[in-house]
Amino acid sequence: MPLRWCEAAELRRKQIESNIDLTFVEVFKPLFVEWICGFNPNRVIEIGAGTGHLAKAMSKQSFLVTAIEPSPGMYKVASEVLAGENVELLNCSSFDLSPSRSYDVAFSHLVAHVVADLVGYLASVSACLSKDGHFVFSIPHPCFYNSYKNLFGSGYNYMTPMSKEISFSITKDPNNKVAGVPYHHRPLSTYINEIVKAGFAIESFHETYPLPNVQLKYGKPWDNPRYCAFFCKKL
Question: CA 203 → CA 74, 147, 227, 234, distances in Å?
């Protein structure tokens, strides 16, 4: 029986700490540290901290880190992972943040596509950023992820927004599935238009495609970039 998302926090912790989650450990953790450090921020917030491992990596840097996580299961594990680290961890979502809070940079890893209210989500992030603050967020690549995972079957149409609860496993641990995860497919144009409506400028766009030596660890090369990231600046 697959674990549901909130119940899967311990599994996700083991996958990350044993280094079998290649995409997190070998690809996104070093990328996010590089990206966020590149802004030279003073105060940073992670939106949707999950197990807390990205926030832990950020805590080794010279800026102050806040991490928020609404899932009780994930928050419990993140509390253990971040024990003794210089990270403020809150059990809430971006919709619950006090308007008095202000950060130079916000970032989120694989969160925006699970949020049903994309407009409200982007607005809530904007509200906690100072003027000229930056927001970096990653999502499964809308152009290629369905061909990789076949989430929607024969009814899939790239230009049509679609939603469903999915199950997934990671490449190096295929027998441990996580179920009950919401997934909202949106074409890139939807993300771009809603980012602009929320008062951000898109400064750059990153299509995630690991170096060949990292791809070999998956067993075969990637056919296409499986993930992407938006770099946004609050106007």
Answer: 31, 28, 18, 10
Q: What is the pTM of this model?
A: 0.96
Domains in the chain: boundaries: 3-234
159 pLDDT band, cuts 50/70/90, is very high
Contact present, 39 and 58 (Cβ < 8 Å): no
What is the per-residue DSSP string for 136-162? Answer: EEEEE-TTTHHHHH--SGGG--TTS-E
Only one residue has tokens 């999915």, namely 166
Contact 38, 60 (CB under 8 A): no
Give the C-alpha separation, 59 to 62, whole Å: 8
How many CB atoms sit inside 10 A of residue 61's CB? 14
Confidence (pLDDT) at 7: 84
**What is the structure's pLDDT at 16?**
97
pLDDT digits (tens, 9 = 90+) for 95-137: 999 888 899 999 999 999 999 999 999 999 999 999 999 999 9
The 3-state secondary structure of 60-86 reads: CCCCEEEEECCCHHHHHHHHHHCCCCC
Q: What is the CATH number of domain 3-234?
A: 3.40.50.150
Residues forming beta bridges with residue 136, ordered by sequence position: 107, 231
- Count of residues for the chain? 235
d(CA 133, CA 63): 14
- Count how many Cα atoms sit within 13 Å of the Cα of residue 159 in the half-sphere of its side chain: 0
Task: Please tell me what DSSP assigns to residue 18.
Answer: T
